[in-house]
Amino acid sequence: MTPAMALSWIFGLMMLHQNPDLLFDGFTFFHIKLTAVIILTAYHFSLDYFRKQLLNRNFKFSSKFFRFYNEFPTVLLFVIIFTVVLKPW
Question: Where in the chain are the domains?
Fold first, then answer.
């Protein structure tokens, strides 16, 4: 998924370069979306960290933790879609 994430970032930054008013004209929904995407990117890299720990059998977390951790991107997905489609602010 890293290539798809990289392309999403590239195209998103290109869009932002073409329309910089999104950052500076009080578009709160864009700031919320951008924050959620940054958190989702950090989540993506944390999964790679956990994967490496699992391969080395050097992990500290229970299966219950991973079940809850797995739901985190779903919540972020709803936040991102909600802010883009409805633009509540």
Answer: 2-6+28-86
